[in-house]
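User: I'm new to structure prediction. If I give you an amino acid sequence, what do you actually give back? Let's try with this one:
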Amino acid sequence: MGFTKPDLPNIDYAEWKTRPRGERLRTVAEHWVEHGFGTPLAVYLLYLVKCALYVLGAAAVISLTPGLGALTDISSWWTEPIVYQKLVVWTLLFEILGLGCGFGPLTMRFLPPLGGLLYFLRPGTLRLPPWPGKVPFTRGDERGLIDVALYAVVLGSGIQALLASGRGVPPVDGGHVGLLDPMVVVALVIALCVLGLRDKTVFLAARPEHYLLMLLMFFVPFADMVIGFKLVMLALWWGAATSKLNHHFGHVVAVMMSNSPVMRLGWLERKMYRNPPQDLRPSRIPALLAHGGTVVEYLVPAYLVFLGHGGPLTWAAIIFMAVFHLHIISTVPMGVPLEWNIFFIFSLFYLFGHYGYIHVQQLRSPLVLAMILFSALVVVVGHIRPQWVSFLTSMRYYAGNWATSAWCFRGDAELKIEQHVTMSAALPVTQLTKLYGPEIADILIQTGLGWRSMHTHGRALNGLIARAVDNPEDYAVRDGEIVAGPLLGWNFGEGHLHNEQLLTALQRRCQFEEGELRVVVLESQPIHRQRQAYRIIDARTGVIEEGYVLVEDMLARQPWPEPDDLFPVHPLHHDDTQDLSSARAR
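Assistant: Good question. You get back a string of structure tokens that encode the predicted 3D arrangement of the chain. For your 586 residues, that looks like this:
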């Protein structure tokens, strides 16, 4: 690994390129076991600097609050009630600007390393309304001046909140600047919700299941607000834990550990798999780590919320969970939700440490309870009908059970996108070619596909690609995530951003011929069914096949497809057909 050069498989590119697609994927999958994505040191340094800027920027901006104190006096004011409120606003802005999740090379963003405001402030870029046929004034797929104006209102009102003074009587002993006037975030909340009805990408980029929900807690009295914050954190932990009650998460843990920059021992990474390089299914170790992490996310937060009232045991739990999130940060997971985990760590010491004496049993506000119950309902629906709800808003996080897609471009079809679609950045393969040349660019794109293949759903996608096209060797296969990123301005594992809706928007602009672009869409697994629905779509003619695959078949497969080995598929039942029809309508 070099400072700027990625750690690549040791191959003769010309010879490797002549191999069948399955053999090429096997090469990068075997390399992933010990080297992960092969990320250059400069990239890790970039993310380290960005995390530092997030922390220092938050402290510097919050210190501007009238009467709070200078940045050098942070130890005397970090526990002020208004500080956490402003950190929520700061982090929401950080995310929606494109500086948080989905930033940088580990999401295939190089030049520039962010999307966010470069797209959301630019008329003519793509937008994807969640319910265009049901919500008035949301039809269309092109960003207009009204969308830009709403986004500007979100930014402007957020900045206003960050610079606002506290008001009212100090709510606790030791406080002296009061709380934010909740009216200061009204414009932010309304503009973000209205904008979300016109473009689900911007709404999801703000991480509404976390920060928008916390903004709404500003409207209740101080003690209830703190309890509301604690309950939001509990919902996030428990939602994530529930999403990991599946057969997919062991694969995720193995892949994360292989990509960790602090685990470069070789033998330790190989222990994550059954018998590398022949058998790259997860061993018992990542399975045990997966189950252990799930238990931790259920039990320790439950103790902090319901039983922790200070004392050594409470602080032990706080430190334990802080280490838990530090570990996640250390693996530098794809999608890089680093600041999100930093926010969790600060919340542990702020909410459960300093304000641990405010007990959840003291809750008096029915509004807080109503918001938490509504959030829980979204989570339940998202687990049962994942095609209806984003995995983010239903808090189904890094558990390996995601909606995904594979895009197959024939000939020069991929070039049509850059010719006919308004974007603020080139497609990843173009960016990589400018940085490293075409050969390394191709290997890195294939490494990304290798990462996808190491997960259960990647095995299904590999098999379904052979059903989607006559000869996969005639097509350039791209992960839907890196297609959506430069087209929409944000990507963080949300497969519903690169399904038929995006394909329809592209077809209107690019006019692909039949067979030029085929897309395999794989939906998440419902929590009560051990199968995942799929659709194969031609950009010009529409759906050409749909059915479902079984989770047990994915678990039995290796990350690479064998020659002439079609993935076993099954016809849809009546209820599956209804679910998919409603999903396509959205």
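You can read the tokens as a compact description of the fold. Here is one thing that stands out. The radius of gyration is 24 Å.
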